[in-house]
Amino acid sequence: MKFDATPAQVGLLVRHLAHLPGSQGVTHETLEHELPRGLLERYDWLQKVGHTPPLVALEHGACSGCHIRLPTMFASHARLRAGVHTCPHCQRLLYIPEAPVEEPAPPPQKPPKPARRPRVGGRPRA
Predict the structure, then answer these.
(1) How many other CB atoms sit within 10 Å of the CB of residue 37?
(2) CA angle 7, 14, 96 (to 5 degrees)
């Protein structure tokens, strides 16, 4: 399942969970005003049933909550589509952490082949 959420809304949830220094104003009331209703209901339900933390990162193709590797197709779709997704195993909310974009490394170059040595000895050529 996918919930539409902007990166700012995801950041708000992360700050609420992490109790970071800049999150003093992030209360549950703030979440009620800023988040879509379905996402907030799922977040509250996960906390109620004991799935803590309810929001985890999708890293290296695995859920950071249950540490189970996700299907490749699911992980690639989650990376391509912005928003919050649900882990098919533990039902936690998954987000894609912002990662710096790295330039691809150039392909390795093969060393040049050594020159052939001239033939020494053996049969004379006709």
Answers:
(1) 8
(2) 50
CATH of 2-95, one of 3.40.50.970, 3.40.50.12780, 3.40.30.10, 1.10.287.1490: 1.10.287.1490
Global pTM reads 0.66
| One-letter identity of residue 96 | I
Domain extents in the chain = 2-95
Residues with Cβ < 8 Å from 46, sequence gap 6 or more? Answer: 52, 54, 91, 92, 93
Pick from 64, 68, 9, 62: nearest CA to 39: 9
pLDDT tens per residue across span 33-74 = 888 888 888 888 988 898 888 889 899 999 999 999 999 998
Residue 63: φ, ψ to 5°: -75, 130
